[in-house]
Design a protein that fits this description.
Blueprint: E1 5-12, H1 23-38, E2 47-51, H2 61-69, E3 75-78, H3 85-98, E4 105-111, H4 119-122, H5 136-151, H6 155-170, H7 183-188, E5 191-193, E6 196-197, E7 207-215, H8 216-221, E8 228-237, H9 253-264, E9 273-275, H10 281-290, H11 299-303, H12 321-324, H13 331-342, E10 354-361, E11 366-373
Parallel strand pairs: 2-3, 2-4, 9-10
Antiparallel strand pairs: 1-7, 1-8, 4-7, 5-6, 8-11, 10-11
């Protein structure tokens, strides 16, 4: 399947605080923009796949959205793996196109936790809530603390991840948070859950994003010279909650990343640029280890010294990621990967020809990986 399916169009809404906007409205705007970017009409779409909104899950949400868009899809529905769902949906779409189940697929996601409900992010987490484990940050803090205790990872090394990504977001005119960060400012930011500070944590954002997929053959017949080929994808999932895992420093991102890279026929050293799910800085560090960019336990030193900034060895989250562009989980990273491969990103990495994108959900429970190539 390598290169047989392409991302032909991308679209988004504004990100940040969007009062009065529901998720259906946001999804429609992003899909309309993606279709315009691809240069095709709505009536060409015969599949619609959507991640349901995290802040307000709804029964049969895929059909609700299809009705609002005036679509009668051959293939459709909603799928949830938390933040990993968006790349998984792209993989399902690619397989459906490859096997002749549909021709043109819209994959989209919208949510409005900033002006709507934040309950999904603030609620007690599992039975351990009785002992003070409230909200998602506590789980990631436990992973970070274990990594620090076992490998000597430091707070400053996490801070360098935040500094690099915030620098990229500051250069993005569409980013929700356009404030660069220094390491001293990071050190002064308040604790959320020790050892994670405020600037280790992603934004809470309203917004939507969408992509259009089709076969490479169809894109070529339509004269699309900037359709971005999908070289590989993979998934990996853990069914164990954090406290039940035998090793808190390893995740099934290893399986997801290895599957995608093997499909693409590439090694970590062949990747020019990475868009890594950064709900928390520790997620970036552990994912880079899992994908093989750094040895297990050596993610801290790997992320230091400006290596993740544009101009460094492996530019990461070049539009600002969840820490700066938008906390809306996952699909915006795919959009930036597409822009980088097309050569029209705001902060373009010179001569970038390969990009890996990660998504993950829960507290590093679910993982999806995508490898994109250059249209040339």
């Amino acid at each position: 399947m390598r290169g047989n399916v392409v991302i032909a169009g991308i679209g988004q809404t504004a990100y940040g605080k969007l009062p009065g906007r529901g998720t259906v409205s946001l999804n429609i705007e992003a899909c309309r923009n993606a279709l315009a970017d691809a240069g095709i009409e709505k009536n060409a779409v015969d599949a619609l796949l959507v991640k349901p909104p995290t802040s307000n899950p709804q029964f049969m949400y895929g059909q609700t959205l299809a009705e609002a868009m005036g679509l009668q899809p051959r293939v459709g529905g909603a799928w949830d793996q938390g933040g990993a769902a968006n790349i998984s949906l792209i993989a399902f779409a690619a397989m459906a196109i490859e096997h002749g189940q549909c021709d043109v697929v819209l994959v989209c996601y919208a949510d409005n936790p900033r002006t709507g409900s934040r309950h999904a992010y603030e609620k007690a987490w599992g039975d351990d809530a009785a002992y003070g484990w409230f909200g998602v940050p506590a789980g990631y803090a436990m992973l970070a603390r274990r990594h620090m205790e076992e490998f000597g990872t430091t707070s400053d090394q996490l801070g360098e991840i935040a500094v690099a990504i915030r620098k990229h977001g500051a250069a993005n005119p569409n980013a929700q948070l356009r404030k660069p960060l220094t390491l001293d400012q990071y050190r002064d930011s308040p604790w959320v859950v020790d050892p994670l500070r405020r600037d280790d944590c992603c934004l809470v954002s309203d917004g939507a994003a969408a992509v259009v997929l089709m076969s490479a053959r169809r894109a070529k017949s339509l004269g699309m010279d900037k359709a971005v080929p999908i070289l590989g994808f993979g998934q990996g999932q853990s069914s164990s909650d954090v406290a039940q895992r035998p090793d808190l420093t390893k995740t099934c991102a290893e399986v997801s990343g290895a599957t995608a890279l093997q499909m693409a026929g590439l090694r970590p050293q062949d990747i020019d640029i990475a868009q890594i799910y950064d709900c928390f800085t520790i997620t970036v560090l552990m994912t880079l280890e899992a994908y093989g960019f750094a040895k297990h336990g050596q993610g801290g030193p790997f992320c230091a010294g400006g290596r993740l900034a544009i101009g460094g060895e492996l530019p990461v989250n070049t539009s600002g990621g969840l820490l700066s562009e938008t906390g809306m989980p996952g699909l915006q990273l795919v959009l930036e990967g597409v822009r980088q491969m097309r050569g029209d990103a705001t902060s373009q990495v010179k001569a970038a020809r390969t990009c890996v994108v990660s998504n993950q959900g829960g507290i590093m429970h679910t993982h999806s990986t995508l490898v994109l190539g250059n249209p040339a």
